[in-house]
Amino acid sequence: MDDIEQWPEIEKVALEKRRELVFQGAAFDERIASNGGLCSAIYTLKLLNYLEVSQCPSLTEIHEDIQHLTSLQSLILCRNKLASIPSVVGQLKSLKVLDISANNLTVLPEGITQLKELNTLNVSCNSLEVLPEGLSKCTRLSTINISKNKITAFPADFYSEKLDLLSMLVAYDNSIEQLSGDVHKLAALKMLDLSNNKLKEIPPELSDCAKLKEINFKGNKLSDKRLEKMVNGCQTKSILEYLRGKGKGRQGEEGADAEGGRKADKGKRQQRKKKDKGAEDEVEELNKMVVKVLHVSDTPEALTVTVSSEVKDVRPYLVCCIVRGMNLKSGNALKRFLVAQTKLHDDLCGKRTIATIATHDVQLIKAPLVYDVKPPTQLKVVSLGRKEMTAELIRQLQLEADELRKQKKRQNIKKTTKELFLEVTSAASLQTCKDVMDALILLLKGKEMYPCLVDAEGHVISFPPITNSEKTKIKKTTKELFLEVTSAASLQTCKDVMDALIVEEAGSDGEGDGPQEPEGSSETSSELIVQQVRTVDQDGSLKVVYPSKTDLCSAIRNLTVVW
Asked: Name one Pfam family in it (predicted).
């Protein structure tokens, strides 16, 4: 029988009408074991939009009353011992993130296919043999991770134009035997990992996925031995070009003279051999990328961010960390990092409407920091490269932009508005200006208070999603970066964006200006140090620490995380 006194967190969430609840680790696992499961009172918290119960091996089932949490946007049930998930999970119509990885699941409920708003599905590290038919109904899916299961094939309806937002498919360490040529219908696909499966062929149609930037087919015994060698050492671009040529050249090759073809191929093979050697060296270097996590207990003066309760109605989610080891001095390293950040804003962050990244020079930060809200008349910020101004001006520009939108004259923003907004946001272009306007309208329309990150001197160093402060701007001389990601969507969204940003910093794109080596070191491996940052509420209770053990996990194959 439930003893509510053993679950003070539930009572606190109910009394304060909080929207986030996290149970994680051994202490909570003991309570779950003694109670015979989760306290039933948890299913009465209908305001919750983020629920996490993780690293609790005593948790073997979730009650069907989970269907009452209709406001849930993120449900994180990873690293437990769940044997099943109730099909009524399909009643969670607002759910955007579902993480049930590292459990004992052998089958997924059909109800998952009813989650129309779902954008992230992680079912990795289970014992699944099949995926449910109907996943194509989840038309907002952008990330699927089914790695480390026993899956032999994708559902028949999986290769569908309906999944036009699916950009990341991670399916390594399964028993998948075939990849259909219909994979080209997944037009938004950017990353595909099918390593360590049972594939014999890679369809040439894969090369028709115009946005595909990263593929991994290592560990498959392909019938085309040349292709097998390429997937173990070459860049994605080279593999796709080979597949493209293989698809187009079949008929021409049938009528070609065999001997002449062999002579022509000999010269090409010699050229490819040189290219492949360089590519293999690059892959070998990538595999040495290391991220070392520095725990808060190892840094007595670790930075902590206090989160005001007022932000819950404006932009409630925040994760932060400190990064050391970046080399921003060499070449265009700083420019490339900023370009990568902009790309994340455009893609993963939905042009700032889903999440926003801010970067700061740690040496210029005056701790402690507070994530708070201010009325537009009092929110003063020195935007990048500009003079101090209040958010009231930005509000007026937002209202004018909104009015122009209604009049369908968005392309004809008058000169004064455009110039002022470009100045406020330090935007590089009119298109960026428009993107920030869109984000501002979505976030702040009807809001009386605006979110901001404030330092110990009362200065605003970040005004998400609009601008950072000149006060903490990063430069080529910056040695330590303070990173923040904010969102109104979910905490998991913040974590996903931060994961992606750290991977970019670690040099996983292979462009060379990644982490710097220690002076006097002869090692070629690169190591990035990520220091945990805690965010706490006004009572000092922990809200989140990043990175945790569940962050920076298995989706990135060429990255090693050292705890």
From this structure: LRR_14
